[in-house]
Design brief:
The structure is a single chain. 0% of the residues lie in helices and 44% in strands. The protein is mainly β. It has a single domain (6-108), classed as Beta Barrel (OB fold (Dihydrolipoamide Acetyltransferase, E2P)), CATH 2.40.50. The strands form two sheets. It has a five-stranded antiparallel sheet, with no helix packed on it. The chain has a three-stranded antiparallel sheet with strand order 2-1-3, with no helix packed on it. A hairpin with a 2-residue loop joins strand 7 (93-100) and strand 8 (103-108). The protein is elongated and about 45 Å long.
């Protein structure tokens, strides 16, 4: 898997999503273009996971957050450096820092 964080963008209207799509949700155009995001954004929401899946059990607790990317789409990601709700706030600036498997990792910036 290529390193980085990516989105799909509609060449007709510019709509973007960082999740899977086969056609534009705004205008219905197919053939979305894959674009690399710069990786900066802000926390929209988060939860602290104390009992995660087996793959991440040794890392708990950690935050799982929904991120509003600066380019205009949202994604979600893992924040292993955030251990409690006191370590993070909605609106905090974050940046993409890598991957672990299919999980996007974000850190506060």
């Amino acid at each position: 898997m290529e390193e980085g964080i990516f989105a799909l963008r509609c060449g007709k209207c510019g709509w973007m999503t960082a999740t899977y799509a086969v056609a534009c949700a705004s205008c219905g155009t197919g053939g979305l273009e894959r674009v690399r995001l710069k990786g900066d954004g802000r926390v929209l929401s988060f939860t602290i996971l104390n009992v995660p899946t087996e793959e991440f059990a040794q890392d708990a607790p950690y935050a799982y957050a929904v991120i509003d990317m600066n380019e205009g789409c949202s994604t979600s990601g893992w924040m292993p450096s955030v251990r409690s709700a006191g370590d993070i706030e909605v609106g905090d600036s974050v940046r993409f820092s890598g991957r672990r498997g299919r999980a996007s990792i974000f850190v506060k910036s």
